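Budget justification, computational time. The allocation requested in the original proposal was used primarily to generate structure tokens for proteins on the priority list. As evidence of use, we reproduce two of the resulting records. The first is shown immediately below.
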Amino acid sequence: MKKQTAGRDRLGEFAPKFAQLNDDVLFGEVWSREDKLSARDRSMITIAALFSAGLYPQLKSHLALGREHGVTRTEAVEIVTQLAFYCGWPKAWSTFPLIQEVYGDERPEADGVPSDLSVFPVGRPNTAFAQYFIGRSFLAPLTLEQIPTFNVTFEPGCRNNWHIHHASSGGGQLLICVSGRGWYQERGKEPRELHPGDVVNIPANVKHWHGAAKDSWFQHIAQEIAGAETHTEWCEAVEDEDYLILP
């Protein structure tokens, strides 16, 4: 999570101690504990709390922050719809214009997937390989000619199992990151944080996994490299205790 400076920017001279507590304690210590709750989950909880209290100026700010953390327009609308029955119908009427203002003309998400991740299609739920993923993923074939190429979309927290692209010669996989933030790790090596523009060359016969960060949607283009006697071996899931300590 990026460092928060809103307190000092707005109240640094008028209320310096409050500004310091806001930036360094609330956001610097509480919000940064993403090993306990992701920034996305904290945003959703905070949006719900501010909506229930009718604190609309702060709610608008946290809707914008939530969008940065991966909260989709559909999810924001559903939070308000759910809580309207418990917290007050007029509050819902007052909140929907804030959501519209923050999310602009963004179209509703298909299956909860943001519509503006990248220029590449999201595709359909990756049901054929769902047993090898924790969380939802989506698969969009871009071309099956020459080099088969797919766009893979991971929801926040989604990652695939450890797996190996076997080949007696050639083989392996190439990943080109196009949206969001993710991770890649080879067995025995430190995890590598991924951002748009990063390229990952995965050798054949190397055990590895890849997927989204806890608080971000993530997309990469995947290309299967031609080789002899190629096949993919799917292995155990990535343990929560190893994944959740990643920032």
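The second record produced under the same allocation is shown here.
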Amino acid sequence: MSADRTGGVQSLERAFDLLERMADAGGEVGLSELSAGSGLPLPTIHRLMRTLVTCGYVRQQPNRRYALGPRLIRLGETASRLLGTWARPYLAELVEATGETANMALLDGDEVVYVAQVPSRHSMRMFTEVGRRVLPHSTGVGKALLAELPPEEVRALLARTGMPAATDRTITDPDAFLTELERTRALGYAVDDNEQEVGVRCLAVTVPDSPTAAAVSISGPAGRVTDSATDKIVPVLHAVARRLALALRDAGTAAD
């Protein structure tokens, strides 16, 4: 590999690292923060950020800080759709095995966004529109995803979003919610028990080592998604999530 090509690849890796650091910081940072976190000298970061601004992937705010740019939205939306397309055969397996509607969702900023769904064949079934965004505290997928984060990050997220009640069963106290996340980690799965919609229960697990934080779930009437049904459904959820994780990992390896 030539010296120019080596330098180009290194610059590309550094640029992606800066974008990911910006995303981890909430989407807006200053150059000094990026320098402290990345270990790169300020002139290098300034040069890379100038290129990203020119390309539309970053924009400079009036306060001189840098924010993720609008061009990333199109990339993110396309990637989410593709991830949903890859997930659909695995969600279909969940429907076949459990009889209930299967979903896949991502944590996008402070919200959960549903990127794929395969409906149950029952006449009484749950339906969530693909692309729908909800606050994570009242959903099974949201609990599963937040259980992967440090408590201080969860508290900060809840402070930003608030904890409005969707039903009288929604957890609206941060301390109670953190206790629920401890329970989620201990059980290995999350439960939405009439918290997003009355009469509906949802069971969710994360997709391990997903390239972006993702969870899969089943949802159905509380009369069908009982405690005894949960004992049978959860192992299926974990098995499908593991197979989906392997498929995503293989896709990434093939891309390399």
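A brief technical remark on that second record: The longest helix spans residues 227-255.
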